[in-house]
Amino acid sequence: MIVATRTSTRQARALPPLVAIVGPTAVGKTATAIRLALDIDGEVVSADSRYLYRGMDIGTAKPTVAEMRGVPHHLIDVVDPTEDYSLALYQHDAYQAIADITARGRVPILAGGTPLYINAVLEGWRIPEVPPDPAFREEMEQVARERGPEHLHQRLAAVDPAAAARIPATNVRRVIRALEIYHHTGRPMTELEGKSPPPYRVLIVGLTLPREELYRRIDRRVDEQIAAGLVDEVRGLLEAGVPPDAPAMSAIGYGEIVAYLQGETTLPEAIERIRYNTHRYARHQTTWLRRMRGVHWFDPREPGWYERLLTLVRTFLAGNETDLNSADVD
Fold this sequence. Notes:
The protein has helices at residues 9-14, 29-40, 65-68, 87-103, 115-122, 134-147, 149-159, 161-166, 172-185, 189-192, 211-228, 230-239, 255-261, 267-291, 305-317, 324-327; strands at 17-22, 42-46, 73-74, 107-111, 125-126, 194-195, 201-207, 296-298. It is α/β, with parallel strands linked by helices. Residues 1-8 have low confidence and may be disordered.
């Protein structure tokens, strides 16, 4: 897929390139991005919301220094688990990283599976820049606890019906964010939003596996995370003062272990819950990916898949967009 402003073909080719690698969790995006970066003189910009947090390494399957193989990575370990990090801030930081990489004459590779992050960058979302208001959020959370999420959702429907129509009442965090934006601007969140194509030409490549194989990889990774010390990692975060209800701790693998450490479940039950929740998240990602247009898909099980992917990327970087279909024979 080539994303560019609606200019002449010549002007579009003058735009700097951005390669995006997408796919469900455990499909191999990180390793592929690193391998590709080594082959095309690139740097990786993470689009995984879990990679942002320092000290959350095992449960997020964050690449180690050895696994990075010297490839510079951006937007990894940028905030503490107790800090807020908004979508607007991610988009700003991602655009800055992409610009810096391009200025050095290297190729930015956006890699990850967080749908909001990917879309915010590739579609150029206009995101209301309203900073978090802890006092307002606590007030709204108290309302949700005392009167129920539906009451909070009704408040949103009264000031921003379009947002209420797309945000379920059960997603209290997003309901509060929409109310927070209205509270500070006096305007509905949906009125402030929009899209402005970013100043890149974009190639999107996707990795895909049959569901059964993906689930096997997920389950194997969960077992490896437990063996690597996930329980101790979560215990250490709690002992360092990270609240168990901090947004970062809602990441899959952390909330389940918190429940175990608090005596609410057994370790085998927590592990099974991690597997189940990761399977569900992979299905959610797959549903989102099916809606993405112009993705060039590759199955990592097939012989020669990476060589075909590399040929496609090199064709794109050479500016031969008309030859992309012939280069992509997957």
